[in-house]
Hints:
Blueprint: E1 3-11, E2 14-22, H1 27-38, E3 39-42, H2 71-79, E4 86-93, E5 99-108, H3 120-136, E6 141-143, E7 151-152, E8 157-158, H4 162-176, E9 183-192, E10 197-206, E11 209-210, H5 225-232, E12 236-237, E13 245-249, E14 252-258, H6 264-267, E15 275-280, E16 295-300, E17 304-309, E18 312-317, E19 319-328
Parallel strand pairs: 1-4, 5-6, 6-9, 10-12, 14-15, 15-16
Antiparallel strand pairs: 1-2, 3-4, 5-19, 7-8, 9-10, 10-11, 13-14, 16-17, 17-18
Helix pairs in contact: 3-4
Amino acid sequence: MARLKFFIFSDPGILERISEHSLVTSLWQNTLRNLACCFDFYYFDTKSPTLPSTSALVNSAQHVLPTSISPAEVNNKIKAMQPNDELWVAAMPKVTVSWTSWRTELYCPGPGFVREVSTLDSCLGNMGKAIKDSLARGCRLFVGPETYFHNGTLRDPQPLSADEKLQLDEAMQKLTADFDMALVIAGTVYWVDAEKRVHNSLLAFSGGVNLCTGATAYDKKEWTGEEQEAGRAVGTPVIGEKNFTKISWQTLTVLVQICQDSAPDAQVRLEPCDIHIIVGNGTGALSLKQRPGGVGAYADAQGKGRFQDAFNIHDVGSGHHACQLSLAWRPALVKGL
């Protein structure tokens, strides 16, 4: 079986990771296209694009050709591969690109959370500890699921009161106060205000600042019929005006969507973003739409999640997960791939 290996270097002396692909599927094409926007390609020797040693022995890119190889040439080499061929390609950040590795953590509750009777204290105790531990480990991006904060059960959630929502905001501000370089998307909160309006609102904090307040507040737009019916039992459901929110943070554009707000027909209208985040509760079709070189993350209350960067898509199940995602600034445009 033909195999393709990308050796990703942050500089010629530091191997960050190896991305290995089978040519049975076409997933390598997206990887090649995304990498080509942010990385230059090199082969490992002067005779062929292969290296006669094991992957474990590759710890530097000092033996690559001094001249980069065009993405089109790499693409042609891949298409010409025979069943037992193996193609090795070194990828290093373009000179005009700033590239860094981000620790990203997802909090995806276990199966028991669906039936568990929740309160503000129990939810804040569990996720609050997860956020605190994550930030202490140097996490740059933390993502929790939709409707995590509520009273009752996930199948029959009862909204928090306006006072409880205020307590939650204050707790999140305190947790993130000393972490300006971390973005915490704690999912959404199901709550009812003093006018008996029922909200499903995004929670986003950084450096002790609530990023979703006033004009930047984001309430879910695409409520299901079941959700609206449950909301009407306690008040008037608030239907959001938009199916995403845009957060400008640390010179980056972050787009966040709540569950069904990320439906395919809505995503075609999204503008390019550096970071795309989806928080869900049983989200169906899923597609993260960050620009090439950006990162994406998805956390779901039903116990599943996804990490995505320029050369990796990694699906996970329930639990608290961490992944190093590679983020590149100022990607070049590559045509013809």
